[in-house]
Every structure is written in C-alpha cells, then in structure tokens.
Amino acid sequence: MLENVNSPKDIKSFSVEELNILSQEIREAILNRVSQIGGHVGPNLGAVELITALHYVFDSPIDKIVFDVSHQCYAHKILTGRKNGFLNQEAFASISGYTAPFESEHDHFMVGHTSTSLSLASGLAKARDLKKESHNVIALIGDGSLGGGEALEGLNFIGELSSNLIVVVNDNEMSIAPNHGGLYKNLKELRETNGQAQNNIFKAMGLDYVYIENGHDIKTLIETFKSVKDSSKPIVIHIHTNKGQGYQFSESEKEKWHYNMPFDVQTGLSTVSFNQENYNQITLDYLRQKIKTDDKVVVVNAGTPGAIGFTPEIREEFKEKFIDVGIMEEHAVAMSSALAKGGCKPIFWVLSSFVQRTNDQLSHDLALNKNPAVILVSWTGIGSNDATHLGIFDIPMISNIPNLLCLAPASKEEYLNVLDWSINQTEVPVVIRVPSIVMSDYSLQLPKNPKKPTFHVTEKGDKVALIGLGASYWLAKEVSDLLKNNKITPTLINPLYYSDLDTEALASLKENHQLVITIEDGLISGGFGQKIASFLSRQGVKVLNYGAQKEFTDRANVKELYEKYHLTPEQIVEDILFAIQ
Amino acid sequence: MLENVNSPKDIKSFSVEELNILSQEIREAILNRVSQIGGHVGPNLGAVELITALHYVFDSPIDKIVFDVSHQCYAHKILTGRKNGFLNQEAFASISGYTAPFESEHDHFMVGHTSTSLSLASGLAKARDLKKESHNVIALIGDGSLGGGEALEGLNFIGELSSNLIVVVNDNEMSIAPNHGGLYKNLKELRETNGQAQNNIFKAMGLDYVYIENGHDIKTLIETFKSVKDSSKPIVIHIHTNKGQGYQFSESEKEKWHYNMPFDVQTGLSTVSFNQENYNQITLDYLRQKIKTDDKVVVVNAGTPGAIGFTPEIREEFKEKFIDVGIMEEHAVAMSSALAKGGCKPIFWVLSSFVQRTNDQLSHDLALNKNPAVILVSWTGIGSNDATHLGIFDIPMISNIPNLLCLAPASKEEYLNVLDWSINQTEVPVVIRVPSIVMSDYSLQLPKNPKKPTFHVTEKGDKVALIGLGASYWLAKEVSDLLKNNKITPTLINPLYYSDLDTEALASLKENHQLVITIEDGLISGGFGQKIASFLSRQGVKVLNYGAQKEFTDRANVKELYEKYHLTPEQIVEDILFAIQ
Lengths: 581, 581
Prior knowledge:
six-stranded parallel β-sheet; Rossmann fold; 39% helix; 24 helices; five-stranded parallel β-sheet; homodimer; globular; alpha/beta
C-alpha cells in the first residue's frame, strides 16, 4: 500500500482493511529507520493507527495537525511525502526526527521540547478565527507532555475558546518513564471507567470529552474523528494506546524502547556499544554512596530519568531519595529550592536544553532566596544534536542570574570534589556544569575557600594566557602544547567558576601577557569569555573569545562545526600567532 | 486589640468577636500604610479574616504558611511582629510589600511573581517528610495565580503527595483583572453550587476538597482550618472572598484598587498625579489607530492589562483584538508565535520582570520557528523597585537567543517607527525594548534595511566613542556634552540593535578612537556592552562597559544606585579622562 502513498490524499479512498495493512507497512518503515540510525521507537509505533486515521479524516495541510514534542511524528512524515527518509538509507539524513516546516507544508512548527502543542494550536485557531477562516486545528499531545506547565496553561486557555480545536490525547500510560502527578491518577481512572469517571480533568477545564479505549482500532478512530470534524467548540479525544505497539521488544520494555540507538530488528539487541566511562555513571556511583551516609540528600529529576542513568532498578534502590516530578522543570527548581530551605540537600539533575524552561524559577525561587540547592546541568557542550536539544545555551542563561555560584569542573576528580563540596555546604545555591568529556587529572583541586571564585593557574608562562572553561580546558591544553612548539610558553588556566571572575588573577595577567584566549563549550554571546573581555579590555589587554556562535544548528557535523567556529587547536594557534605579531 | 498583638501567640486566646474587632483594626492599619505610600489594596483587604484565622489555628513559624505572589501578606505581617510598618510612617520603609525571610522567621520565601506557592510548599512538605517531622504546611494562593503553569505543575505534584499539605485557595473571583481560562469557569461553577459541582479541578487532580462560601466569617474559617489541621493528606480549602472587603472604594472598583498609589482614605481620590507623557499612552494611541487599518493586528497580554494601560474601557474598544490570557506568560509567547504563523500580527506586551518566565518559549516556540511576532518589553531599566520586579535582566536573557531581532529605540519617534515597521514586516520575530523615559528626537530614524543591524552615528568625533543603548542614549549624550567642555569631541552612537553588532561601524571606530564607552539600562553581565567589548578587544580597542551590576537590589534609592554603578555623567567623564590619559 505504502508504495502508492505520496501524500495524505492517496489514502482517502482506502478501506479500513487497507488502512490496517498500510499501518503495518508504516511500522516496518519506522523500524527500518530507527534500527539503523536510532530514534524514538515506542512513541512512534504506538501512534501509527491514530495518525493514519487523522490523515484519513482531516485534510492536511488545510486542516492543521500540531504535534507535541513530535516524538510520535514518523507515521505523519511517512504519509506526507517523506517515506524515503524511512525506507532508503541514503535518504535517512534528509529527514529530521522531529516536525520541521522546512521539510513539508504539513509540519507547522519545529518542536522538540514537550508541552507546547496546545498553546501553538490555540494560536493557529485564534488566527483562523480572526481571519474568519474555517479549517480544523488538531493538537496531538501525549499523556506525558500534559503535565508540563505550558501544556496546562494551554489547556486552561482552550477551555475558554469558543471555536474549533480538537485536542487528541495519546494516552500510552507513560511519559518517557512512568508518569507522576495527580493528573495521571485521573487519566488512569478515566481509562478504567471507559472515560466515564466522575472526576475528569478535561471537563473540569471546560472542554468536551470523548474516550476511545482501543487506539489501534482504525474504524473507531475514523468514526470518532469524523464525528468531531468541524466541531465549533474545543473537544478532547482521549485515546488509549499501547506504547511500542506491534513490535515485541518495545511492547514489553516500554521505558527502554522510548528512544533507542541502532539495534537488530530480529533480536532487539543493540548493534552499538558504549563502554566509555561517562559522567552519568560517575555521578550515580557517587550518589549511591552519598545517600547511604547522608539522610538529607535527595535527587530530583523532571521526567528524564533514563537520560541521566536512573534506570528502574536504580530508582528502586534510591526509593524516596529520588523524586521524578514528571516533565515539570519549573516545579522541580522551585521544589528543590524549598527542599533546601527545609533542611534537605536536593540535587536537581537536568539536561542543558531543558533547564532553559526554568529561568524565572532559578532566578526568583532559587537565587533570590539563596537556598543551597544543587543544580546539575548535563548534556552540555557543542556537539551534534537536533536544533531543539543543543547544549550551548545554559551558560548565558544561568551565569547572568545573581547569587548563583556556577562551577564548570574540567576533570573527573575536580567534578567529584565540586559535587561533594556543593552538596555538603549549606550556604549558597550552586550550579554545576557537567563536562561533555571524561578526563582525569588529580591536580585539579577545589580552592581553599570554594565560595570565593579562584581561577587555577595550571601552567605558568607569559605573553599568551589560555583560559579553558570546563571541558574546554583540554582544548586550551592542546593549544598550549602546540604553542610550545612555536617557542611560546603560555599561561594555562582552569577557571572552574563561570558566574564570577577571579579579578585578581585576571588583573595580574596584565604584567606579562599581551593576549588572553578564552574557550568555552557553549555560546560565546552572553557567556563566560565575554565577561573576561569586558574586564580585561578595561585594562587594555587583548582578548579573543572562542565558543559557539549564536545560532541554532540542526544535526550538524561536529567536526565541521568546530572548524566553522575556529575551534581546532591548529586554528586557535594560527589566530594567536597572527594576533601577537 | 492590635495594640497587644506582637506575635501570633497573642491572638490564641481571643474570642471570635475579638478576632473580628482585630480584623477591623488590621484593615485600618493596612489602609493607613497604602494610603500614604501605595501598595496592594484589594488583595490585602480581602484576605484579613482568612489570615487571622490561619494564625489562630496554626502555629507559625513551626507550621509554615507559604504565600503566593504575597500581594495578600499584609495581615500576616501585622500579626507577626511587623505592625509598626503599617502604623508608623517612619517605619513604613522597613517593611517590604512582599514576604521576606530577612524580616521575619514567619516568612519563608521572597516572592513577587505569581504561581510559585504550591511548588515551594510541596518542597517544604517533602523536606518535612524526609526528615520525619510533623508540622503543617499551608500554601495560600489566589485564584488568579492558579492559572500559571508553575502553579498547575505544583498542583499536579501535590495531587500525588501522601502527606500533609493544605492548599488555601483565596478565590476573590478575579486576578489583577478578570480571570481567563477554563479553570475559572470551573471555579465559578463551584462557587455557585457551594462547592458541590460535579466538575472539580482539584478533585480531578487528586486532592481532597472543602468549600467555604463566606471567606470573611472567622468562625467558619476557624472551624474548617481546625478540621484539616494535621491532615495526613493534601487538601484544598476553596474560600470565596470579596476582593477589597471592608473599604467602599476597593469593594466597588476592584481592578482599579488592586494596587494603588497614595490616596485619601475618605474620598478614595489619588493624592499624587502623573501627567507626564508615558509609553503606555504613546503605544495605546498608536495601536488604537493601527487596529482600525489592519485587521490582522492583535495585542496579547498575560494578566497585567492595567500595567500597560489597558483599562476595562480600552479593552472594550479593542474587543477580540486584545487577548488577555491570564497569568500565563509561557502560553502567551507560544500562542503569539502561532498567531504569527497563522498570518496574524500579534504583539505580546509584557513587563521586563515577567518576560523571564518565557526563556524556553522565546527560544523554541518563537525564535527557532522564526515567526514574525512582536514582543514588547515594558518597565525596563535600572530604577527603584522590589527585588522581584527589577527591569534589568531582560537584555541578557533575550539578546543571547538566536534569530530574535532585538531593538531598543531611544526616542518616542524612533520607538513609533520601530513599532510600526516590526508589526508590518512578516519575516522575523522582533523584540522591542520600551525605553524607561520619554524623549523626543525626530532625527533618530530606522535604517533603510531594518533587518540589518546598523548603528546610528549621531555625532561624529574622535578619540572617544559613546554608545548608549535605548534610554541610555540620553545619558551618553550628556556625557558627550560634558566631554566637549573638556575639549574632547566624542563620537556619539545610538545603536538601536542589541541582538547583533554593526561590526562595520564598530571596526571603523578603530581608526581614530582609543576608547569606547557602552551604556545600557540593564545588567552589564551577559548584556549588550560585553558583546562590544568582545568584538573590539580583538581589535585592540579599549572598552568600558556601564550598566547595572549583577545583583538583586530591593527598593534601592535610585540616585544612590546610579552612583554605585558609576552611572552619573560626571563619574563617566572622570573615568574617561583617566582612561585616556
């Protein structure tokens, strides 16, 4: 069937039986791609019939389907002219794992963080109404995404809309990991009563409501969608689906199969292996010991336990010392601040690309109140990733908030020292930027008074000073070694602190340095190096800042990106030699 | 009664009748303060009995009362040893308008943005449970604050708590202005059914629920609080109150009396007047015309219409062209992005201190998608304000996000040109920073291609270049004039753009300038001037950055603040003369 499908129009004449066969072929196409290059397995397999039925009933792109997080958009991509990106290995790279308007007129937004679809869809609906148009707007949101503040705000807003907006809740009974929160008790109640439970969060928010128990029954899906098409008021269609449907391994181990690296389709076994030491494991090993000796330590996470190594087994081990709040980053920061206020030692462990949800909470709930919570920012740095998952924006966002002590350790040993000190102290909120690469160097120690920003001069030299923050310290060290071949012995500095400058150390550079180089594993704009440029420019010392340019890159080739940013040791050395001529 | 009350303990033996008299005295004390120095009138008058009853039943500070936004904390302050701040004019300044732990052990958090109390209270409750303590934790939240994403996340989390947390919902039927969203239809339904309505947002979220119809009936309040004290699970007490209760003017005009400048208690008339031209009025005058000629223009606001001059009358005039989404800034940004995607011309008008809720939405929902919405950031700049309402953090937060064209006009005429161009263009998302002072200068025009950052050199000179962003342009001009007295004719620049540099203009300064001064009406750290320092330092040009230091100031004396930041024209001139010696 799929062979003849190049746009949603091509399925309009299909019978239910044919749509079922098509769904099976879509599933195979999805597995073909994800088994070779990795991707979101469970969410996509679970939404195939639902999306096929949507495209059968509605007329995309006139009717607009807005995906939440778009972990579940593969079937949509396959049906809207992009099946090659799933069938042919050569075309895989041409299609992103998320909705992308630059790929197709059927995609309306680039998304990759959860909980945005309801607000985005409501804006399209409002625009339609203001322009007196009449198409359908459909938001497709997973149960996991519903708990996020932005989604709940959107739901609240939609509850007062008086025009068409169809909210399809794809309820597969879990987020990436199990769901958390009162809302999910209600969804369970609704599932168990075939949608008849007296308590109904959607009705309470003012929306009409329909329940579909079998989200893989295309006939029912089509009938229901037809019945709400062109509805003149907002309605929720709550659809119960099976995450990972149609593939034995993803059906039985749902959390593991949310996202997978390449695997063998027959055996389900991974075809790649990672034996490298990594900071998740290093941190887990530390925390596992720490909770045994310190009752007050508690780890907080917002819906991404797998991404930080908290498997179901480890969660079991941590018991009440691990709080997964679900996809609610704002709540996680505010609650962590209060946990610290209440005498506990919370560590909110979050990925760089998700911490940007919490600017106001870091500022007011935490920093203004100076509560000694620890924020652990993982998955940092310039690397290959989707535009929505870049790890380069956290330094500007966090380090310009007052009262936060921000630390970017460079080595494993320094990291563990920093982590231990941060948890044990009870005076200031601390942000730790987990480095992107594991390097070992016992000489990188905490200063005597860790609250006072003190840069660590690891090699004394003159003429040129190299300041490499966190993971970038090792790049600075490579530059240092290359410079020595050019008969320059530079000063090498591991600053560790990126919220504040060690102005003494910097001022003293003036004496016998004519050039200072800063390197950071993130955005230059608004970041660490620019603070140094601002300080040293006053002193008349020339500064060159290195890091990422202010742009969204999408699945960039890392090597090319580094070259573009002039971030290879050779390029930096060349710049230095030119600058000190 | 109040004379003998210095701590909550002192009211424990009072009869209901005495508590009623006390409430009346508290009301008078509140009016005494707000009529003389301004403050939140309606929210505080409406919560007097409720707070008095809380302190009668619970044992603060062992039992912990967490206030939301703390617009309603005055009675609490009066009962917890701070009545002097309300009774004696000399002591007014010693007490802030918000909860503040540095004032009293009865205050647990500094707050000033809405919707944080549920998360904060849940953190205290969790800490209590982990430490195996047993006090009560009470969150006091207004109905208006409930719609914010952080509050809804908190509510969701609390729905799964299995220990004591008492959520007191102070429902005065409005936010600052009328409420918006489906949630509020439900609260209305609950009020109209004495809490018996079948749809119940709180029960749907998994919480127990009690309703009190008369939130000024101390006897009922006390009985109900006693019945839930030491509850072993979370419960909502939904209390219907009258905003502005007990003062004729605030009872009859609730929105106007949410916050008031000084007034005459007898007549309710303002005792101060503001006849100065202001940007609210300038913008309103423009928009009023604009919506007549352009169907697609729509103004979006998040629960603060009064703060931008959208009185009930003006809202009536704008009809569907004004969308107040309630206190849901995240939703406002995402919806605006989608409105632009849908072909409308949305202007999200927001205050600097509240826009910091939307970092992720500005980045992903808006900037990554390049939808041509306009974000209008008001109440900017270095000035006297509470620590939670500072207007200095928006430049670092916004200008380091890719794809946003950020403009800081300096004069009224430039502002109107910028605003008109931004709304009419359909290519890029634009952020306009509304200046803090109204100045007129017709010579400040938009460059020919407004999408290309082009700095405007308004006075050509040499040796020293002064770059003053937005409102700071006028300070730079003052410096320029003073320098001329010192026989230096500086170059004066109005950069307008703060997202990107005009590198050509900057590079050309190298020729005949040895010093560049940047001034911005906001944080130096991560801001505009540091980008210039970074660029020019490479070229070997000395740069001095001026602006606010990275700190939370609380109700600072503006003159002292400027002096501390070396921001008087005389100080800057002194620095310049020293630097170019």
